[in-house]
Amino acid sequence: MNITSKHFNPLTVTIVLCLCVTLTGCGDGDDPAKVVEQFLTAVQKNDRKATEQYATPQSMGVLDTPLFGDILRNRFSTPAKVDKSTLTIDGDTATVRAVYGNKDDFSDFTLKKMDGKWKVDIKM
To answer: What is the pTM of this model?
Structure first.
């Protein structure tokens, strides 16, 4: 089959490709490190709806507790960099480290795969 420009308008091809990318999404839920980055950004912005998107229901319950939730929200509001080299995946569980400022100040995040997407799993 010979494909020539008279059969495929470049504008049509561009529109179809854009639609494919938009409809399939970015796939952030497939990358535990990216999920932690998005979770921390949501917490820093105090965006509950976005936080729920990246956290397990149990994690939201922990964040909603008066004392412990305040401590965690305060901790997570500090700018952090996710160290992707620390990522480990074992079945439906993953762990990745977020570093705050220097390498001695960090949090290790555990994630659970739920409905095919990684979610931050905070336990008390």
So the answer is: 0.73
